[in-house]
Design goal:
By secondary structure, the protein is of the alpha+beta class. The chain is built from 3 helices and 6 strands. The strands form 2 sheets. Strands 1-6-4-5 form a 4-stranded mixed sheet, with helices on one face. A two-stranded antiparallel sheet has the order 2-3.
Length: 149
C-alpha cells in the first residue's frame, strides 16, 4: 500500500456485521434517527477489540485494510469445505456496509474522524473460524497517492 509511518493491526473475533440501515422514530413533532441494536452492539465490540489490543490514535492520512473471514456452512461436505477455505465470500454483508460499521466504530478512538481514511481495502473470504482483521496505517506526510500494484 502506501508509505507508512506507524501502523497497528487488531483482530475482532466472531462474525462480522455490516452497518444496518438507519432507524427513525417520532418524538412529538420531531423525527429522531438512531442505529439499530445489532449494529450498535457490533460497533461497541469493534471499539473494545481495538482498545483491548492496545491500539492508539493515529493522525494524518490513514490507510485501512479490512479482511473478514466467514464460516463455511456446516452442511458443506469435507471435500468441498477444504476447497472453500480462503475462497471469496460473495454474500452479505456488503463490503461497503462492513467498512462503514468498522470505520464508524473506530471514529474518535483510532483516528479523529473517518474522513482521514484516504485508502481503503475490504476483502471477504471463507474460513474455518469467523473473524475480522483490521490493519491501520498512518501514512507519511509526503504521501501523494503512489499506489503499488
Amino acid at each position: 500500500m502506501g508509505d507508512v509511518k506507524r501502523s497497528f493491526s487488531f483482530e475482532i473475533a466472531g462474525l462480522a456485521k455490516g452497518k444496518g440501515r438507519p432507524r427513525f422514530r417520532s418524538t412529538g413533532r420531531f423525527v429522531q434517527t438512531y442505529t439499530d441494536k445489532e449494529t450498535a452492539t457490533w460497533e461497541n465490540f469493534v471499539r473494545l477489540s481495538y482498545i483491548n489490543s492496545g491500539g492508539e490514535k493515529l493522525s494524518g492520512n490513514i490507510e485501512v485494510v479490512i479482511q473478514s473471514y466467514f464460516p463455511i456452512p456446516k452442511s458443506v461436505s469435507k471435500k468441498k469445505r477444504a476447497q472453500l477455505v480462503g475462497a471469496p465470500f460473495p454474500h452479505k454483508p456488503d463490503c461497503d456496509n462492513l467498512a462503514k460499521s468498522i470505520l464508524d466504530a473506530l471514529n474518535g478512538i483510532a483516528f479523529d474522524d473517518d474522513m482521514q481514511v484516504i485508502m481503503l481495502v475490504v476483502t471477504k473470504f471463507y474460513a474455518e473460524d469467523a473473524k475480522t482483521v483490521v490493519h491501520l496505517g498512518e501514512l507519511e506526510d509526503d504521501y501523494h497517492g503512489k499506489v503499488e500494484a
